[in-house]
């Protein structure tokens, strides 16, 4: 297709580069943006620049934040004796949405993956060890992804914290609530059997 | 969920308002934008403002354009004896992508829809009639959407142009009724153009 309108073609190209947006969706969104008021378009445009300009890593837990420390680290009502370790900020968000956790977090900003050249020193592991050594922490909950690399990362940190005397736990694995046994993956069924709990 | 980070929550809200983007996709895109370079984010942000600032309607055919007349109207190699009438600029784009049409266009900027309070005078019908009356046009091809309203719009314009002596045709119904031009495949659009039939 000849780029009938350059600026529109460029917007479609930019939108197509976003995750989960194909060319057709990009076109649809671009034509939508052409129809909205200049104000609405400006709000989206500014929101994009804003996140880049304002958001940084919390100096303590590496959560995304506009202020340092982040709201969770700064929140006096949270339980400071527990640290939940996640790979990425969106994992933290997912746990916050679940709404039952009241402790602090530590975001690793990845997982150990030698094949991708991601090593322990590329993550925030050293800072986690410091936080535990500083005292006051009684439990570290590992909530990395249930993958080989997630598990390997836990194993690595577990060794570093073994001497700390702090309780180390990981999220329960099993069949997801609301799913059906029939469609559960073999590994998650194996985990569910393995971690079976006594009734009442 | 508490808005952990205001600017991020705002970006997610803005993205969620785009067509075809749910809250999960919006989150995914927002976290993606957090990870890209500031330059990449700025390119998307500017592309959004650019289309709003630069794009207007062609004074002749109402196609989206940065210059007036638009590239198609200004293109000396196009067949000026044929005008293809579409509802929206993206319909024009769809036909251009099919690649077999070499004439000019006329974008109605909608279709007659009394229930939505859209009447003939809200569209660019008067300008189309003027273009035909100005002479040099031997055929008007109607490429409105194959819907009741699209057909009704054709009927209305057909009456206005009946006395002009110009050949009036519509796209062959190679395109499935009830769908929209915007999402038709290029080959089926090319077929539809090729098999256009004389009106009544």
Explain what the structure shows.
The first copy, chain A, is α/β, with parallel strands linked by helices and about 200 residues long. Chain A folds into two domains: about 5-55, RecR Domain 1 (Helicase, Ruva Protein, domain 3, Orthogonal Bundle), CATH 1.10.8.420; about 70-200, Dna Topoisomerase Vi A Subunit, Chain: A, domain 2 (3-Layer(aba) Sandwich), CATH 3.40.1360. Chain A has helices at about 5-15, 25-35, 40-55, 70-75, 90-100, 125-135, 150-160, 185-195, and strands at about 55, 65, 80-85, 105, 140, 165-170. In chain A, the strands form two sheets. A four-stranded parallel β-sheet of chain A has the order 4-3-5-6. In chain A, strands 1-2 form a two-stranded antiparallel sheet. In chain A, strand 1 (about 55) and strand 2 (about 65) form a beta hairpin. In chain A, helix 1 crosses helix 2 (about 25-35). Chain A starts with 5 loop residues before the first helix and ends in a 6-residue tail after the last helix. The model of chain A has no long low-confidence stretch (mean pLDDT about 90). Chains A and B meet through helix 1, helix 2, helix 3, strand 2 and helix 5 of A and helix 1, helix 2, helix 3, strand 2 and helix 5 of B.
């Amino acid at each position: 297709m000849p780029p009938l309108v350059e600026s529109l073609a460029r917007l479609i190209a930019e939108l197509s580069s976003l995750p989960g947006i194909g060319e057709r969706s990009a076109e649809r969104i671009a034509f939508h943006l052409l129809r909205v008021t200049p104000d609405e378009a400006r709000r989206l445009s500014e929101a994009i620049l804003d996140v880049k300009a304002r958001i940084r890593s919390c100096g303590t837990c590496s959560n995304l934040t506009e202020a340092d420390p982040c709201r969770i680290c700064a929140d006096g009502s949270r339980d400071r004796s527990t640290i939940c370790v996640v790979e990425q900020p969106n994992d933290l968000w997912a746990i916050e949405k679940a709404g039952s956790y009241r402790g602090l977090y530590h975001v690793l900003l990845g997982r150990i993956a030698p094949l991708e050249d991601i090593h322990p020193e590329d993550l925030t592991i050293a800072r986690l060890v410091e936080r535990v050594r500083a005292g006051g922490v009684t439990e570290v909950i590992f909530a990395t992804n249930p993958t080989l690399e997630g598990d390997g990362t836990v194993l690595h940190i577990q060794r570093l914290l073994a001497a700390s005397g702090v309780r180390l736990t990981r999220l329960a694995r099993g069949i997801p609530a609301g799913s059906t046994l029939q469609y559960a993956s073999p590994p998650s069924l194996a985990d569910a059997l393995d971690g079976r709990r006594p009734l009442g």
